Amino acid sequence: MRRGFRKRVIEDVPPVTPRIVQYRIERMYCTKCRKFHEPDVDIALPGATLSIRAMLIVAFFKTGMRMSIEDVSMTMREIFDLSISEGEVPNILSQLSESIGPEYDKLLEQIRDAPSRHMDTTSWRVNGENHDLWTFVTKSEAIFRITKSNNHEVPLAVLGDHKGTDVHDRHSAFETLAKKTGNDQQYCWSHIICDAK
């Protein structure tokens, strides 16, 4: 019998334990405005007890993975050993939404000003109810919006008075948008090819 060696690669996820950091923050009192002033802590939003990373994981589980609030809370506890109450999950989403709002508005303006944008919609379940997920995409930006309605009012509200070419799959909402805005239209090639087969 001859002996030899072979290589075997195994990927693993190391155990995760939360890291708790206490910051010592210098505060200054202004006698003119009669308020304390202090620098921001860069890993957390003002007033938050969780880091931005932990908050983004909560948001990913809730919106990206479509988990229930109960499942988000349980998953954070089981995987990351972080105790997050079910009531805290919506608060985290609200805090993130408020802090990201100005960046979302900038993205929206860039999409409106782009020479062309791709648009699509698909069904999306939220807490067991039917909704629609709308996407508006350029070469370098993308925004998503989840709504209960599936008509032309949604892209009209998102894009407003925009110019350029709208690329879509001939969904009636986009057809109506074209009539209202007078913008150039381009149909998605994959749908045209499917129709030709």
UniProtKB/TrEMBL annotation:
<protein>
    <submittedName>
        <fullName>Transposase, unclassified family protein</fullName>
    </submittedName>
</protein>
<dbReference type="InterPro" id="IPR052344">
    <property type="entry name" value="Transposase-related"/>
</dbReference>
<feature type="domain" description="Transposase IS66 central">
    <location>
        <begin position="51"/>
        <end position="192"/>
    </location>
</feature>
<dbReference type="InterPro" id="IPR004291">
    <property type="entry name" value="Transposase_IS66_central"/>
</dbReference>
<dbReference type="Pfam" id="PF03050">
    <property type="entry name" value="DDE_Tnp_IS66"/>
</dbReference>
